[in-house]
Write a structure and sequence with these properties.
It is built from 13 helices and 16 strands. It is of the alpha/beta class.
């Protein structure tokens, strides 16, 4: 077994080991690094094929088009030069799902990489744009965009309510344009114009303005009047930036507003759903201010022109009426002649009135004298004469009536005589009756009777029907030798 040593020497560390110095690389300038990255990116990604949804498309004054390709997680900037744009098979539009072919380039001026598009093909409608189209159709079916729901913008509003960011350029543009056109009171309701919470704040602002009482609201800080018109304004931006104004809460708040709403979101080419629900759409916030109020200078000129035209029209009308009165005055007689004529008529009427009173008194006097009762002899004589006049035509009428009645009676008697059955008997016919005098017109009835009476024109005979019990005298034959149906009794 080996024994461990009791002492182990420690190496001398008083002198440190020699370390070679580290060489630092020479620093690069920003431009040199940018060029290195540019070469690295453009060399390794000289041809790529990317699919994404177009967003935030802008067309520069030079004709080049700048936009972004995006998916759920990432965004890639892209540029399409003016010469390439005319050869594309599809026109770039926000929300369009496309497949782009090109190369990655680095723009050192902003340290950004971008896709230079050589070809562009439509791959289908973007999910965001499709969602917005479906929401638009659904809200339109509910009637939120109906033209009959839209209210008229007041011509001269006293107070204008603005929903926008208090720190942006939009409110300054609106105030500047209102100051130039028609200065009026502006109430600002601050609200976010993009990002989280923007839709809720805009909807709350529109509802808050509508909740103000019509007579206004007195607060400790001052009196707040109710606006006559609202402006919801925001500057331009990408489709994602404008998405809060496509939110259903904002659209419903604008559609339910009792105060007329002017929508001024984005630029003229940007369209959001509140543009359909608003009562009026303006292409820009400055355009909203122009649509909200008229130009004061133009109104003054118009009023001055109307006053001038009114004065001229009044003067012309007065002159026309004066000419008409002058013409009518020529056709009127002089007042002196009219007074003289009416004085003469008055004298004539006075004279006729006196004569009429005298004639009336004479008429009444004659009528009073006629009211005296006549003598009884005169009354009797008049009554006799009246009776005679009435009786004389009555006697003639009675005689004529009796003669007419007599002639009618004689005619009826002759007619009755001609219709008498005795005339028929004279032509050789006989009348058969029973013992009670009832006429027998049937042989079957006659056979059943015990005795019959036969009447001729010159007398009657009694007979019994043939077949009944015969007396001795009935067994004899008639003088002419023929057996009759009736036997004499």
């Amino acid at each position: 077994m080996t024994e461990k040593p009791l002492f182990v020497p420690v190496p001398d560390i008083a002198e440190p080991p020699v370390v070679p110095p580290v060489r630092r690389p020479e620093p690069l300038t920003v431009t040199e690094l940018s060029r290195a990255l540019k070469g690295l990116v453009e060399t390794n990604f000289s041809f790529v094929r990317v699919r994404g949804e177009i967003s935030g498309m802008k067309r520069a004054g030079s004709g080049h088009v700048y936009f972004a390709l995006k998916d759920d997680d990432s965004v890639l900037d892209a540029v399409c030069w003016r010469g390439t744009l005319s050869r594309l098979s599809a026109v770039p539009e926000d929300g369009l799902d496309v497949v782009c072919t090109g190369k990655l380039t680095v723009y050192g001026g902003r340290s950004k990489y971008q896709l230079t598009v050589e070809t562009l093909e439509a791959a289908g409608e973007g999910a965001l744009l499709k969602m917005l189209e479906e929401r638009k159709r659904r809200l339109e079916a509910e009637g939120l965009f109906a033209p009959e729901r839209k209210k008229k913008i007041p011509f001269l509003p006293d107070v204008i309510g603005v929903v926008t960011s208090p720190s942006g350029a939009v409110i300054r543009d609106i105030l500047h344009r209102l100051r130039d056109r028609f200065p009026c009171r502006v109430l600002l309701w601050p609200a976010l114009m993009q990002g989280e919470g923007c839709a809720e704040q805009v909807a709350a602002a529109v509802k808050g303005f509508n909740d103000l009482p019509p007579e206004g609201l007195q607060t400790p800080s001052g009196f707040i009047p109710r606006p006559d018109v609202l402006i919801v304004a925001r500057g331009g931006g990408s489709l994602e930036d404008l998405m809060p104004f496509n939110d259903e809460k904002v659209v419903r708040a604008v559609a339910a507003s009792d105060i007329p709403v002017i929508s001024a979101v984005g630029h003229e080419t940007d369209t959001t759903l509140i543009d359909y629900a608003a009562d009026l759409r303006a292409p820009t916030p400055t355009g909203a201010a122009e649509k909200a109020v008229p130009v004061l200078a133009e109104l003054r000129e118009t009023v001055a022109d109307c006053v001038c035209r009114l004065v001229k029209a009044s003067a012309r009308l007065t002159e026309d009426r004066k000419n008409i009165l002058t013409g009518l005055l020529r056709g009127l007689p002089s007042p002196e002649r009219m007074a003289e004529e009416y004085t003469q008529k008055l004298d004539d009427r006075s004279e006729r009135l006196v004569m009429a009173l005298k004639a009336l008194l004479e008429t009444k006097r004659s009528a009073t004298e006629r009211l005296k009762p006549p003598s009884p002899a005169l009354l009797a004589s008049n009554a006799a004469a009246t009776l005679y006049k009435a009786a004389f035509p009555l006697d003639g009428l009675m005689k004529n009536a009796l003669a007419e009645k007599k002639a009618a009676f004689e005619t009826a008697a002759r007619l009755l005589e001609s219709f008498s059955y005795e005339r028929v008997l004279e032509r050789g016919f006989a009348l058969v009756s029973d013992k009670n005098g009832a006429i027998v017109s049937s042989a079957s009835v006659a056979a059943a009777l015990p005795e019959l009476t036969v009447r001729f024109a010159d007398g009657k005979l009694s007979a019994i029907p043939n077949g009944t019990k015969k007396s001795k005298q009935s067994r004899r034959k008639n003088t002419d030798g023929d057996r009759q149906g009736f036997l004499p009794l």
